[in-house]
């Protein structure tokens, strides 16, 4: 459990960098590596307009290749830092560090990463935070290993002690624990005093068991952006409608209803008969901007407009993500923000 005075900062608070891992032929991206690399280049270009990015690379050859591709694309290379690390996959939202501010300084919570409940091999990803910490990436931050399976995409905080999550994901990982026990443990580790758990919400093609970062996200202490579905013939209509009803019933710490920002629904994207999990809720907040996933859909522009309303004063930057959802995740899933002061 955390000491008094610890705090889990919201994503929109100042950051030192964003952490990603470069795709290569040894990852699951190998069959479509070219188009996925284009998505990564677009992501790095967008991030480095505003702040540094730390890029994990599997070996010297991967680093040299990534350096050449990013330099050719005219990325702001003074804001790109490469670090050597082995990894199974590139979904760093789930295998990267969850950072708290504490009276002793920054603390990296290193939860177990089990490949989304044992669906995939993940031993190297589970060791990633320890390896990066031991290599000095995080300066004098303390690492706290926690023997409990939890992915960063499963939780979202308002920075003021309120955690948003889905019960489905938590209970898939820990079927022996009831909701009260799960909430108490998360509050202790993450320095929260409220857990708002949703019973509804899912996306076809999502293999995370309903991560909250594909469904609903805080945009302020009194605001929530969420993925909506207005197509009555779509199989998501009832479930996402029930989720919207749950969100409308939630109350802020002051007892007021949250301001809700429903995102438009993209048309189904199919791959060999399999529906892919395209969600506009999988955005990334960085210093001065919100990076928004777009899919080449007519609803893209409407989604950007909703995010502009939800995050006034920030640039809204579209990042093409259609290639990414082939592997069941999008922009936020690939990235982990590193709070100000964490990366020297």
How many DSSP H or I helices?
11
Report the CATH superfamily: L-arginine/glycine Amidinotransferase, Chain A
Helix content: 25-40%
- Rounded to the nearest angstrom, the radius of gyration is 19 Å
Mind explaining what this structure looks like?
The chain has a 4-stranded mixed β-sheet. It has a 3-stranded mixed β-sheet with strand order 4-5-6, covered by helices on one side. Strands 7-8-9 form a 3-stranded mixed β-sheet, with helices on both faces. The radius of gyration is 19 Å and the shape is globular. The chain has helices at 33-48, 60-72, 92-95, 115-118, 123-126, 128-134, 167-173, 179-190, 237-249, 300-310, 331-334; strands at 15-21, 53-57, 80-84, 98-102, 105-112, 142-149, 155-157, 162-166, 194-198, 216-220, 223-227, 259-263, 270-271, 274-275, 284-286, 289-294, 315-320, 336-339. The two termini are 27 Å apart. It contains 11 helices and 18 strands. Helix content is 28%, strand content 26%. It has a single domain (15-339), classed as L-arginine/glycine Amidinotransferase, Chain A. By secondary structure, the protein is an alpha/beta fold.
Topology, pairings included?
Blueprint: E1 15-21, H1 33-48, E2 53-57, H2 60-72, E3 80-84, H3 92-95, E4 98-102, E5 105-112, H4 115-118, H5 123-126, H6 128-134, E6 142-149, E7 155-157, E8 162-166, H7 167-173, H8 179-190, E9 194-198, E10 216-220, E11 223-227, H9 237-249, E12 259-263, E13 270-271, E14 274-275, E15 284-286, E16 289-294, H10 300-310, E17 315-320, H11 331-334, E18 336-339
Parallel strand pairs: 1-2, 2-3, 5-6, 8-9, 11-12, 16-17
Antiparallel strand pairs: 1-18, 4-5, 7-8, 10-11, 13-14, 15-16
